[in-house]
Amino acid sequence: MLDFIRERAQSWFAWVIFVIVVIPFALWGVNQYTETSGKVNVAEVNGKEISVSEYQRAYQQQRNRIQQMLGKRFDPSLIDDKQLKKNVLENLIEREALVQGAHDEGLRVSAVRVGTEIRAIPNLQTKGKFDEELYGRLLRSQGLSVGVFEQMVGNDLVIQQLNRGIADSAFVTKAQLDALLRIQLQQRDIGYSLVPMAPYISGAVVEDKAVEQFYKDNPDRFRIPEQVSVDYIELSVDDLAKGVQVTEDAVRERYQERAADFATPEERRARHILIQVASDAPPEKVDDAKKKAEELLARIRKGESFADLAKQFSQDPGSAKDGGDLGFFGRGVMDKSFEQAAFALKVGEVSEPVRSTFGFHLIKLEGIRGGERKPFEQVRAELEHELKRQQAEDQFYTQAETLSNMAFEHADNLTAAAQQLHLPIQTSGLFTRDNGAGIAADPKVRQAAFSDDVLSGGKNSEAIELTQDHVVVVHLKDHKPAALRPLDEVRGDIRQALSIEAAKTRAREIGEVMVRRIKGGEDAAAVAAQLKLKWERPGFVARQDSKVNQQIVEAVFRLVPAADAKPMFDGQALSSGDFAVYGLYAVKEGDPASADEKTVQSLKSSLVRDLGQGTFKAYVDALKESMKITRYPDKL
User: Fold this and answer.
1) Pick from 417, 433, 411: which is nearest to 471 by CA?
2) Which candidate, 222, 181, 264, 282, places its Cα nearest to that of 491?
3) The Cα angle at residue 583 between residues 577 and 585, in degrees rounded to 5
4) Which of 361, 511, 536, 636 is packed most tightly, with the most Cβ within 10 A?
5) For residues 574 and 566, is the Cβ–Cβ distance under 8 A?
6) How is domain 226-245+387-481 classified at the architecture level of CATH?
7) In sequence order, which ranges of 218-282 are alpha helices (DSSP H)?
8) Where do runs of H (alpha helix) occur along 246-366?
9) pLDDT for position 139
């Protein structure tokens, strides 16, 4: 019931926030699905078509998501487009299968729930309120109607219900948990010795022929990549705003216009008693519900406790146990008629029966907070910045169009555009296709700079949109083809690298001899001493023990203890270049009873989560297997 209005499940919605970044939802009802399916389909799931337009939208959203995740490191050339297309299609198929599976299980979500979920997302609010204009604009930019988007949200909610119903059914027995704890808390009595590579570096002999051969065999290691530098004109709202002047009167006028935005939203705390009746119930049932509410109101006015009556008679399971207490809420959260009544009451007053889509309510106002307004001086800088930026945005779109036109009309230079817009021509440093600094840190700039038109044709680039309010046009300044660094320039680096490799090899050879001698029956400490090394005996160590090199600990825990419990020895090269010789003397099983509660709960949660995910994946696989799925890969 009304507790639905107060729920805030958002984790499943992360992808929606990324794709749309808004969606104010001003009405409870779900609009009708108005968008017609595309005539060309990429797949069918039990006869339900997945259109090309739906696929293309999902594909573009996934590319945008990758670009946002990687930021400046994004490089379109690194995307396996074929695999990405396949993944997007399979995700759409799986999603449709889950929606159908959920509906077959009888799972549904109400229009109220869909609306509430959308309204509750902070990222979709402006100054704490839904921005309907932004809502519509961004939906249109994604090619979505309100009905289609609401249907998407409803489908996500029903999939979430299905996921929870299956994944949350997973459980771990005490025996399973104890078995894992015994392994997780296991300790091993170890010994080890390190054969360092450093002493052998200076003594390594590297012949000139070896250096020359290495240079010949590894040209890519010494190749200077192709580089360019560019002249560019940069246009941004931020730069334009620096030159905008606004008057004091204009700032004060904006303050008055936005007075409501600078007031702390008023919130009210109320209790309610709900007598349920469906919105389409017959008149006699409506009259009966209203009569019950009126009878309770009479008892309240005679002095009976509102909270006690709510606990006894309210049909809202979410609040009845708390005496009908709904806590504090602002406007735009509750049903419209409920909100109007609650915000019309004075503290302590009880309303007449109020009809909503859920039934009849008696509302008692318990408290009011908020509603204060920030003084002008406190928000002056914000308003001034806002006005400057607004004017700058108006200038930006006009000037950006001029920049694009001038760069095209005078394609062989930037001078005409710079003079027309009174903007400086700036110059970048050298950069490669993969890396750059300053303006070239953006992969779109690098891609444009190395395009045929700019690199070979000597033309200006098109206007490059770095962000919605920041564009640049680039023109080639300098070009340096790829080249090999001369051997004499890198000879010392190669010699040092080969010396290190020789030292690693020598350390490994000595270590392997140690392992053979110890396995042959010689005492580990004595063998180490003969080589002027030390055999360390730290005793029992746990898996995450920090007093011993973690690579050695991991290696020892990979050893399978001998059936006769005799010590075991082995060795391996470490990432440092040193070689470790190690031994396992004894194993002490972990004691589940000794585990602290945090460890137990963490391990249990991890097990349950893994089992739940595995169960749900098995369900999805079986669900898809039971359905008739047709793919049309040639339409991708």
Assistant:
1) 417
2) 222
3) 160
4) 361
5) no
6) Roll (3.10)
7) 237-242, 248-257
8) 248-257, 283-301, 306-313, 336-344
9) 66
Using DSSP's 3-state secondary structure scheme, residue 329 falls into: strand
* Cα pseudo-dihedral 98, 99, 105, 108, rounded to 10: 140
Question: Looking at the whole model, is its pTM more than 0.85?
Answer: no
- Torsions phi, psi of 269, nearest 5? -105, 130
pLDDT at 431: 96
pLDDT value for 452: 93
Residues 6+ apart with CB under 8 A from 489: none
**Cα distance between residue 507 and residue 512, in whole Å:** 9
Q: Predicted confidence band at 11 (pLDDT cuts at 50, 70, 90)?
A: very low
Closest alpha carbon to 199 in 514, 494, 533: 533
Q: Tokens 């919105």: give the residue.
A: 279
- 552 - beta bridge partners? none
393-430: pLDDT as tens digits: 889 999 999 999 999 999 999 999 999 999 999 999 99
CA nearest to 550, candidates 559, 539, 541: 541
Residue 28's Cα: distance from chain center in Å?
28
pLDDT per residue as tens digits for the range 506-558: 999 999 999 999 999 999 999 999 999 999 999 999 998 889 999 999 999 99
Give the chain's length: 636
Residue ranges per domain, the chain?
A: 2-169+628-635, 187-197+487-588, 226-245+387-481, 264-369
- Would you state the torsion angle of the CA atoms of residues 326, 328, 330, 333, taken in this order, to the nearest 10 degrees? -30
Which three-class secondary structure state does DSSP give residue 203?
A: coil
Distance CA 457, CA 469 (A): 28
Burial environment of residue 31 by CB neighbours within 10 A (0 to 12, 13 to 18, 19 or more): middle
The answer to whether residues 103 and 46 touch, using CB atoms and an 8 Å cutoff, is no
Fold held by 2-169+628-635: Triger factor/SurA peptide-binding fold (1.10.4030)
Distance CA 272, CA 320 (A): 8
Q: Which of 260, 264, 271 is nearest to 342 (CA)?
A: 271
Instruction: Classify burial at 556, counting beta carbons within 10 Å of its beta carbon; exposed 0-12, middle 13-18, buried 19 or more.
Output: buried
